[in-house]
């Protein structure tokens, strides 16, 4: 597959998705429910487009998220920020769609067979069936699905990867009705050239599908990755305060999320109107030390 550069419009509003769930899920010490609630309520006041707040998954797999329902019942919701919950199987989907407060259900669909088994205890083909059923349940319950193309830039397991493989799966998911895909750099190995080229290709190939990016980065690589994403025309980006997080199901050495404070600073230099409450953001930054030690 060859990548061709084309003119990209950056006129649509920029959507920042804050991911405290991703940041917390790998912590070994359980964060008390009341601390999670206080932290999430501060982030809700900041005014992000979406808050990835919790997950309906097996507590044996991700013990940190076992109190998601209890947390949800104590959140101070507003009209600006929508809630996203992660699910990993049909049981999680059936649980999550019960909650009117949740707007988005996120599902990790990996282009790596090894990671799909590690992350959801299911094959790619089994997960494709789950996606199909999830999309139908979302339609019936007035939810939107966000399908993450995990290991979207390669994997550490030796599984075959190519831009064509990613593109083919993206088209297969779009053909089944997925309207939001998030291309995920799960282990932080994407190069700026990969980010820009693959994002542009998917955006051109699937013009009616919203394409986002979920990037993991190091302190030395965040800016070049962010610049590549912006050049490519990405208007939907995931991040986590101070870059906390990483995927505990992927590798032992976690590569953290794209730091939200860096993303905000970068986008402000580009003249993006983010309309965030920066006082509440500073409160959230200070409060985070109670959770991330």
Overall description:
With 293 residues, the chain is an alpha/beta fold. It has a single domain, classed as Aldolase class I (TIM Barrel, Alpha-Beta Barrel). The chain has helices spanning 20-24, 33-46, 68-72, 90-96, 113-120, 124-140, 163-175, 192-205, 222-232, 260-269, 278-287; strands spanning 15-18, 50-56, 82-87, 102-110, 144-150, 180-185, 210-215, 236-239. Strands 7-6-5-4-3-2-1-8 form an 8-stranded parallel β-sheet. Helix 3 links the parallel strand 2 and strand 3. Helix 8 packs parallel to helix 9 (222-232). The longest helix has 17 residues, at 124-140. It is globular. 45% of the residues are buried.
Summarize the entry for a quick read:
By secondary structure, this protein is α/β, with parallel strands linked by helices. Helix content is 39%, strand content 17%.
Task: Name the features.
293 residues; 8-stranded parallel β-sheet; 11 helices; 8 strands; disordered N terminus
- Counting DSSP H or I runs of 4 or more residues, the number of helices is 11
Strand order of the largest sheet: 7-6-5-4-3-2-1-8
Largest sheet: 8 strands, parallel
What is the highest CATH level, the class?
A: Alpha Beta
The global form is: globular
Which secondary-structure class do the elements indicate?
alpha/beta
What count of structural domains? Answer: 1
Strand content: 15-25%
Write the CATH fold name: TIM Barrel
Q: Alpha-carbon distance between the termini? A: 44 Å
CATH architecture: Alpha-Beta Barrel
Rg over CA atoms:
18 Å
Could you name the ranges where pLDDT drops below 50 across 5 or more consecutive residues?
2-8, 248-254
Mean pLDDT: 93
Compressed to H and E, one letter per element, the order equals: EHHEHEHEHHEHEHEHEHH
Could you tell me the number of beta strands?
Answer: 8
């Amino acid at each position: 597959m060859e990548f061709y550069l084309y003119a990209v419009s950056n006129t649509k509003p920029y959507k920042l998705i804050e991911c405290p769930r991703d940041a917390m899920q790998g912590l070994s010490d359980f964060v008390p429910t009341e601390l999670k609630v206080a932290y999430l309520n501060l982030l809700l006041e900041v005014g992000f487009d979406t808050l990835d707040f919790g997950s309906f998954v097996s507590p044996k797999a991700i013990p940190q998220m076992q109190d998601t329902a209890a947390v949800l019942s104590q959140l101070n919701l507003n009209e600006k920020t929508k809630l996203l919950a992660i699910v990993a199987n049909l049981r999680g989907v059936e649980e999550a769609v019960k909650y009117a407060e949740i707007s988005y259900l996120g599902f990790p669909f990996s282009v790596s067979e090894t990671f799909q088994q590690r992350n959801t205890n299911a094959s790619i083909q089994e997960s494709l069936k789950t996606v199909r059923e999830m999309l139908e349940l979302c339609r019936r319950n007035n939810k939107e699905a966000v399908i993450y193309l995990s290991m979207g830039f390669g994997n550490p397991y030796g599984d075959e990867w190519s831009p064509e493989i990613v593109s083919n799966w993206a088209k297969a998911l779009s053909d089944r009705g997925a309207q939001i895909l998030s291309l995920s750099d799960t282990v932080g190995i994407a190069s700026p050239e990969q980010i820009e080229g693959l994002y542009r290709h998917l955006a051109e190939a699937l013009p009616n599908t919203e394409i986002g990016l979920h990037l993991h980065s190091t302190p030395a690589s965040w800016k070049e990755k962010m610049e590549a994403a912006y050049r490519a025309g990405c208007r939907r980006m995931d991040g986590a305060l101070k870059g906390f997080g990483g995927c505990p199901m992927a590798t032992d050495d976690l590569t953290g999320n794209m730091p939200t404070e860096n993303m905000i600073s970068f986008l402000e230099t580009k003249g993006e109107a983010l309309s965030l409450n920066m006082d509440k953001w500073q409160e959230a930054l200070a409060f985070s030390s109670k959770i991330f030690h």
